[in-house]
Amino acid sequence: MRASVAGSMIGLAAMVVGCGSTQPATAPPTARDELASVAFEDPQAQTFAGARAQLVRRCMAERGFTLPTASPAPSIPTADTPPSGAGYGLFAQFANAERPRADATEPGFRRALMGSARQTGTLHLRDGAIVTYRTSGCYAHAMATLYGSVRHYQWLVFTRNTVRGTAGERLARDPRLAGALTGWTRCMRMRGFPYPSPEAARQDVYDAYMEDSDRARARRRELAIAAADRYCAERTGIYPELARAQHDAVRRMSSDERAAAVAIARSRATALNRARRIVTTSPG
Q1: What is the pLDDT of residues 77-98, one digit of tens each?
Q2: What is the 8-class DSSP label of residue 122?
């Protein structure tokens, strides 16, 4: 998490059918929740990651390379609710994530995975930017299977980033959330944890598990930071303020922003159905 207020707010905040109304306040709660999943965190990220891994593994096998079945890679917890007495849940993630390594040194492995640098596509974005992406290889194949085409996947990524950036800017301008964040930061600093945001605290715990071979020591650090986070959250109300600010940010979406979010939501809903079928039917 960056130390800037804007960066902190965006980090605090990162699909499905809805109606692009020009009156955001009238959107039904379910539609608002769906728009929020586009503007902020995606609750289905692990499902997409699991399906992508299965598709890549099958594709690589067809090309003569073996990728081992592995548990999901540890991920940094979303900073939208206070931690529990058991911490952020990272100890369990890392305990279950001993991943066997694939032999990436075999000739042709990277080309099979990432495709040829000569086989590319281009996407012209509305802001004038041009995105170049690879169209071959098992990773591109997985994205095309889930999203219909690699080009459409790239459009989804960059359009969603635009929606999220705008939503994050609204959070950065929210005075009540800024006040709660300032109080939380001060409280954490007094307890020996000078983090600029709750997301930065989670990142530090994650890094501790990644870098420290002593899992017990990393676990003690997780529990200490989580306890301070929970105490400071109770004193400042930062997590309820974040939920309110996110709600307001979605409510204030312009009609164009809402239309973009709905288009993303529809595409992601279709891809999610595919991902669920892949994860459900995959062995092991």
Answers
A1: 888 899 999 999 999 888 876 5
A2: E
